[in-house]
């Protein structure tokens, strides 16, 4: 019972960390720092942390073999570098509610990737779920409304597309990373894939990280940046990996829906965005689609639990 409470607490904290980020990031971007600069700080900080931690916890563990090393490179490129560059670029242009809802389609991408890469069955309910979520996401992406989070001149549609591509990259990453997670210590894998992500993030964000006048940053902005580096990138990964050892797929599935719900509550309460009837309908379509897709066929590979991992941005 004690362990169950701890798992729920860990998953809730992870969902809350991710949900709050949608609004917190908008305070920093683009006024104080560009999206690529934030990504550089996040990934470099996590690379140092997990690199040191992996040497302490699993000093003898190494990713070996050409196939595993190529897989690690693909995971770092898709799941860390490209994923985060697309996410922050998209969030910089769109609203917190749009971003949180569109990101929910990542489990659907994971199922499609499992069908293509693992030969998983695509049932009629899953096809219906893909269609429902696709309609919901399309309505959000094609919508041209500008909420309070969108500044004049921002391209909301482009931001929505970036978030969809971010969810796609992360959905594929969830499928291809699992063989590494089963074979090596998680910290060994995280250290390697963050290092690969840094190779992409450093040249992309180097100019933006040099531009800000850091001396003019108020304390609230420093706290927001610290939150994104420590809580969003490091703490969330640690809690999530621990919870995945004990949580059932159905429990993980429930927390998929909690993250955008919390993101909406936080964004609306802080005045960062507004929840309109149209957005509520789009959310219902996406949630309904994800629910149908997340229902496993009777005979399903273990990798099917992957779509239920909370989204990491």
From TrEMBL:
Chief location bin: membrane
Pfam families attached to this UniProt entry: EamA (PF00892)
Membrane topology: Multi-pass membrane protein
GO cellular component terms listed in the entry, alphabetical order: membrane
InterPro entries: AA-Vitamin_Transporters, EamA_dom, EmrE-like
Annotated TM spans: 35-58, 70-91, 97-118, 127-145, 157-177, 189-207, 219-239, 251-270, 276-293
Cell location: Membrane
Keyword Cell wall biogenesis/degradation attributed: no
Origin: domain of life: Bacteria
Domain EamA, chain residue ranges per copy: 10-141, 158-294
Keywords: Membrane, Transmembrane, Transmembrane helix
Family per record: Belongs to the EamA transporter family.
Protein name: DMT family transporter
